[in-house]
Specification:
Helix 1 runs parallel beside helix 13, helix 1 packs parallel to helix 14 and helix 4 crosses helix 5. The chain has 324 residues and is mainly α. It has one domain. It is globular. Helix content is 77%, strand content 0%.
Length: 324
């Protein structure tokens, strides 16, 4: 119950973060967004860890655990976030998020390979739905182009798809690393783990700034972009606080699917903040719903469904098939 609630809070704050990022990348660059949103997470996680009494746990982690947490930070907060920002900048938050919902497939693959999870007919059905989600939005592409042109925004579909998939890879891999590092360690310890992840990600961004010209570019961020990136940084960090706590007390197969509900929150917040720059026609909404149903199919157990919908013995036996 607690893990589910924390996951829901993470999904809601991440949805608001995406809406704020969309406003930020209208006038700022992706690197400028990373420079602001990644370091801002360090003091927030330190404060939360101190409040919950887990700050000292930073020094109790083994070397292997520290490496896992640092890797999770770089993969999620740098690689995944870079792909997310580039995808949002290229074709908007709704379309980027639609593709990023495939991150649960990546998480499931790693869970099967590393954590002993299994594939069932219900999960295969969910995978099919997630792949059909982006296809469902194609009929509305022309209308979105016309709307974007009226708002002086040119969507770049190939670029958006590529970087949204990069984000899905980062976001899909990191829960496995976090769960492996923090399994059954408690809420306060999870915040200490998140601190390590954010510090590692901040150091990685610092290395990027050492490339000639990048520091000058980062310092040239305009005030409007700074404001929206700062808002985004706070909300995405709160999202990660809830996410790390959830992964410490609940399995990946519970947390990851609930996080997919961010699609609903992202759409709602985008409607209020970015209505002119986002795709909101029936095809995009249909794609989001189809992908979300796929994520839910991946999250519920076969026994739960069979208890709700009694099937003949033969079909029930097929539904209980597992691989490997």
């Amino acid at each position: 119950m607690l893990g589910g609630l924390l996951s829901l809070l993470s999904a809601a704050t991440f949805g608001l973060n995406n809406a704020a990022v969309r406003r930020g990348v209208l006038t700022g660059s992706v690197l400028q967004g990373l420079v602001i949103t990644v370091p801002i997470g360090v003091p927030i996680f330190v404060l939360c860890a101190a409040v919950f009494g887990g700050l000292g746990a930073i020094f109790d982690f083994s070397f292997e655990t520290t490496v896992l947490l640092a890797a999770a930070g770089v993969v999620h907060f740098v690689i995944g976030r870079y792909g997310n920002y580039r995808g949002i900048q290229a074709w908007g938050g709704n379309l980027a998020g639609l593709v990023q919902q495939s991150s649960i497939l990546i998480t499931l693959c790693f869970a099967i390979a590393l954590l002993g999870e299994t594939l069932t007919p219900l999960r295969i059905f969910g995978i099919v739905l997630i792949f059909l989600g982006p296809v469902a939005m194609l009929p509305g592409r022309k209308r979105f182009q016309q709307k974007a042109a009226a708002a002086n925004f040119t969507p770049h579909y190939a670029e958006g798809f590529f970087f949204s998939m990069l984000a899905a890879l980062g976001y899909g891999t990191s829960p496995i690393l976090v769960r492996a590092a923090l399994e059954n360690r408690g809420l306060e310890t999870s915040l200490a783990g998140g601190t390590i992840s954010y510090v590692a990600a901040t150091l990685a961004v610092g290395l990027v700034l050492m490339i000639p010209g990048q520091m000058r570019h980062a310092l040239a961020t305009n005030r409007v972009a700074i404001r929206w990136f700062a808002i985004s940084g706070v909300f995405v960090c709160l999202s990660q606080v809830f996410r790390y706590m959830a992964l410490a007390v609940a399995p990946v197969t519970v947390v990851a699917p609930i996080l997919q509900l961010q699609a609903i929150f992202r759409t709602v917040f985008a409607w209020f903040l970015n209505r002119e720059q986002e795709a909101f026609d029936i095809w995009v909404i249909l794609g989001i719903v189809v992908s979300l149903l796929g994520a839910l199919a991946l999250s519920v157990s076969t026994d739960f469904v069979l208890n709700l919908i009694p099937l003949p013995a033969t079909l029930a036996e097929i539904a209980r098939w597992r691989w490997p």
